[in-house]
Design brief:
Length: about 50
């Protein structure tokens, strides 16, 4: 994955073992993917409506 990029992936790749090294080993790397229905979320910061 090149630096300064956005990677669009399938929801089957929602795996920290795959995603975390991609951001750690490069610069300004981001990803966009659909999450599975049963994914657990936690709110880090509420930004309003």
């Amino acid at each position: 994955m090149p630096n300064d990029s956005l990677c669009v992936m399938d929801r089957n790749f929602l795996n920290a073992g795959i995603l975390v090294p991609q951001t750690r080993e490069g610069k300004n790397r981001h990803w966009l993917l659909r999450a599975k229905k049963n994914t657990a979320w936690c709110t880090v910061k509420h930004l309003g409506k």
